[in-house]
Amino acid sequence: MIHESQVPRSCDRCYAVKERCEWTAGAVKCERCTRVGHMCESKRPIKRPGRPPAPFLQPPVKQAKVVTHTNTIEDSPAELIKDMIPSPLTSATVDASIWKTVLSTVEHLSQSDLALLDRAVHQDDFTQKLVIGPSFYEGHRQKLVYHLLSSRQIVLDGYLAFALSYGDKVQVNDSYKRAASALLTLRSLQVKSRLDITSCLMLGWQILHFVLKVGGGELLEICNQTLSLIKPHYISEKYFESAYFTFLTSLVFTETAECLIKTRMPTLRVDHPAASNQIDGCVGLCTGLLPHLYDLAVINVDMQKRSQTQDGAVADASDLQTKLEDIKLKIRDWKPHIPEDFCTKFTALEVSHMLCQTQVTQTAALLIIHRLQHPFGTEDGTASALASTILSHIDMTVHITGKTPMCVDLSLIVACLEVEDEGERAQRLRSFSSIGSYSGVFQDRIKSLITQVWAARRRRPTFYWYHLGDILSPFS
Question: Which GO terms describe its molecular function (predicted)?
Fold first, then answer.
């Protein structure tokens, strides 16, 4: 018989996420639980050392089903999910009924909270707003559920705030309280381990989508805070996992779009080795364009800083013009990596949407470059042709698939800045805004932004793209 004192014991949370449980002499909590604010305890049953008896040597998913059916779950939810998914970062396919059973084991949550989490995690009509199509649903859900179980105290308020934002008036009011708590957690988070990195990413992603649904003024703050915490680990490539690119690219693309419009410096350049050929659940085939958009945003800021002459042109900017021509050639010649099984691996809708994303994002970047070289109101023929290309591609895709592709809002804004007729702009925004399709507040925000720029176009005889930051400085 082995006595309890003879068995080395990590705390339950470190054990669940397979992290080293380190203690400082005289401390009442391990270092990890102290850092992330967890309750530090060891209440799981003592297990015999060595191999388990033969009857328990079953495949992970099958074992989870047996436990579920007999209702004798002794492990914590995080331990159960660990049994079901050998690694939290793999893409194993697990039956949705098992996800729901695991979700129901989360402690200290009310039935209403569980119903909200079920809405946010399991319901397809909710998930389809967040990823391109059904081919990405299961991988997306796995990561949501894993972090709900392995780092619940960090991510829970973010999950619930996002889910509540789709509810009735009372639920939306409650969502702000949850979001405030989630934002406080994000601001105080210390990122040191692999789980910390992905938990931070998941929390920031949830808060971002809450903001997209109910407002929009804090988009840059949320993206910057999250990406700044992740950046040192992303650059080192020591811990960052490519399986989480969908969540990363959602934050990066949103921040870069905001920075391009408001003439601000983005936080993170996505040049991870795995990114160039990644087919992403958020930006599809456009991952290879993200570094170019970052570089374009940097040039935009530099040109604004040098726009010191009376007419607003950039002073002594030959080096920037050279950089601009270089990035123009790279974007114009860029082609996405399309694997041979692309059309068979993904649905027809997903293929159409990803091709549309690629075409309109590339064209929008070229239109931004055009307006960095030529002020608004000049060289309008080229600008109108690029804008028409963007709008016609989105129009055709919506007509064929019945749905607006994700991540086309930046392209839509860039194109509408060339459409003078206010009624036509309003019609385009109603029909083509991918975020506006589920957030009227965001659609109103885009409309207000474009209206302000067109008002400035009528007041000012000459201004370039890099002047938008000054024009939109009061805009949230």
Answer: DNA-binding transcription factor activity, RNA polymerase II-specific; zinc ion binding
